[in-house]
Amino acid sequence: MADDPYATLGVGKNASEDDIRRAFRKLAKELHPDIAKGTEERFKKVSSAYEILGDPDKRRAYDRGEIDGRGDPRHPGSRQYARGARAGAAAGAGGFDEFGFGDIFSDIFGAAGQRAGARPNFVSKGHDVRYTLEVDFLEAVSGATKRVTLPAGGTLDLNVPAGVADAQVLRLKGRGQRGAGGAEAGDALVEIRVRPHPQFKRDDDDILLEIPITIDEAVLGGKIEVPTVSGRVTLTLPKGTSSGRVFRLKGKGVKSAGRSEAGDQLVAVRIVLPESIDDNLAYFFSEWKQKHGYDPGRK
């Protein structure tokens, strides 16, 4: 019976791509025949396991039971996976570039870690690579062009689309690892991390904002300036505006890709009293209370 690739790499079935890659790197460094003697068979098994689990399509095929731990089809229709997995087992004898392992072994052992002997007729798409990019809140709302420095050197200009959300992953076609035998390169997967804003919060495509107002603005009403993600606007407060009242600014939210209209900005007001209450203000409210006391609904 073929070995379970998850058990071979020492990871669970819910392991992420990064978990699998880290497990393989650790074992490859320990078992590489150039580093440790008598480990060639175990190294072959580890390489074969990663050939399956390191490829999302082959991993899904294994999880569905279409191929076994060697990559051989369990039933007709999965034949395309078998050749690649069997070839992976041969990696212990040389030729890591042809299986997309070249960059991993270059990282671990240096250029000498990539061994010659790849079969020129082997074709395999390059592996995807993952990056994380931090952007400011307003850059995520309005879009921006950011320059990403790649781990292997060089830079990549990335267009961050307007309305991108925190933890959203952008796929850059063909900007991953090189393919073998003339096959297409893998993709670059860039996960966006949005920095918090001191005033704005985001709820789907709406922007939430709390703004302080004075007691006289609450009682008498008036016009106040309110910041939005696209600039300052004027908001009219009606007389008798209570703390917690929410005003909706139509179309002043986020316009995400694929949406015809932008969201709204929801402005919650909060009455802030002066730092010190002078005698005139205290006397006025004392007199007013005696004649116009009211029940705010406290229970």
Topology record:
Elements: H1 5-9, H2 17-31, H3 40-53, H4 56-63, H5 79-89, H6 102-109, E1 129-135, H7 137-142, E2 144-149, E3 155-160, E4 169-172, E5 188-194, E6 201-203, E7 206-213, H8 215-220, E8 222-228, E9 231-237, E10 246-249, E11 265-271, H9 279-292
Parallel strand pairs: 1-5, 7-11
Antiparallel strand pairs: 2-3, 4-5, 6-7, 8-9, 10-11
Describe it for me?
There is one protein chain. This protein has three domains: 5-113, DnaJ domain (Helix Hairpins, Orthogonal Bundle); 129-194, Urease metallochaperone UreE, N-terminal domain (HSP40/DNAj peptide-binding domain); 201-292, Urease metallochaperone UreE, N-terminal domain (HSP40/DNAj peptide-binding domain, Sandwich). The chain is 29% helix and 22% strand. It contains nine helices and eleven strands. It has helices at residues 5-9, 17-31, 40-53, 56-63, 79-89, 102-109, 137-142, 215-220, 279-292; strands spanning 129-135, 144-149, 155-160, 169-172, 188-194, 201-203, 206-213, 222-228, 231-237, 246-249, 265-271. The strands form four sheets. A four-stranded mixed β-sheet has the order 6-7-11-10. Helix 2 packs antiparallel against helix 3. The protein starts with a helix and ends in a 7-residue tail after the last helix. 27% of the residues are buried.
Give me a quick take on this structure.
This protein folds into 3 domains: 5-113, Helix Hairpins (Orthogonal Bundle), CATH 1.10.287; 129-194, Urease metallochaperone UreE, N-terminal domain (HSP40/DNAj peptide-binding domain), CATH 2.60.260.20; 201-292, HSP40/DNAj peptide-binding domain. Helix content is 29%, strand content 22%.
